[in-house]
Amino acid sequence: MTETLTLERPERQDAPRSRVEVRAVRKEFRQRDRVVTALDGVDLSVAPGEFVTIVGASGCGKSTLLQLIAGLDRPTSGTVRASERPALMFQESALFPWLTARGNIELALKLGRTPKSGRSGRAQELLDLVRLGAAGDRRVHELSGGQRQRIALARSLAQGSRLLLMDEPFAALDAITRDVLHEELTQLWQETDLSVVFVTHNVREAVRLGQRVVLLSSRPGRVLRTWDVDLPAGRSHQEAPVMELAAEITASLRTEIGRHAGA
């Protein structure tokens, strides 16, 4: 990918110090006759242009935290602030099967109030950016799993937000496709002003992609520890420093899972 993406957004006089501010957040759910605490006292900041990955055991509240940042739910207590409406990308591409790849992107542009005259050209720019410039007229069933996730990413970027929330977007893909998409996502992030919050179960994926890895405790989710990833962008998951840091984080995660299991 050689194109430089310019995200369409209104100009602002004062750049925010952070794209995301989560302070003392607690989230409770009622399940039948009991209250379940999913998150308890979570603090998190994401700076402009920062790539933050979040890991933790199943059920620790990673996706719940992402939903709160996205504004899809509200915390029971505490505050969640995003500098702008986030773009979202999930494990399932959730593309509309009756539309072409280009049509899915143009729909997002339409909902984002891009003028009709500019949608086709903008959609093509985004298709080119995710290296599917010649696939615009294909239907969803004609695309591979990796291609569908590329279109889903292009559709997210069509929203014009500088804040991208990703909930295990590559979990269902084979290892080779996932590796390619890691490279492409890293390059895209480097070429833009995006802030990314990326939830994953895969610790090595978290270390490969993130500038910072946040480990949540088992339920109720709390920020157990944070690691700064002082490694060059575009690193491979097979590089020794990546594997060493991933092993350290995995050990902490296993300790937490064991502590929770024995509680």
Attribute tags:
single chain; alpha/beta; Rossmann fold; 2 domains; six-stranded mixed sheet; 7 helices; 23% strand
Q: Multimeric state of these chains?
A: single chain
User: Could you give the distance between the termini?
Assistant: 49 Å
Q: Could you give me the name of the CATH homologous superfamily of the largest domain?
A: P-loop containing nucleotide triphosphate hydrolases
Shape descriptor: globular
Share of residues in strands: 15-25%
Number of helical runs?
7
Record field, number of beta strands: 9
H-E string: EEEHEEHHHEHEHEEH
Name the helicity range: 25-40%
User: How many discrete structural domains?
Assistant: 2
Question: What would you note in describing this structure?
Answer:
With 263 residues, this protein is an alpha/beta fold. It folds into two domains: 20-86 and 162-261, P-loop containing nucleotide triphosphate hydrolases (Rossmann fold); 95-160, no CATH class. The chain has seven helices and nine strands; from the N terminus they run βββαββαααβαβαββα. It has helices at 62-70, 101-111, 116-129, 145-157, 175-191, 203-209, 240-261, and strands at residues 20-31, 34-46, 51-55, 77-82, 87-90, 163-167, 195-199, 212-216, 223-228. The strands form two sheets. It has a six-stranded mixed β-sheet, sandwiched between helices. The model is unreliable at 1-14 (pLDDT under 50).
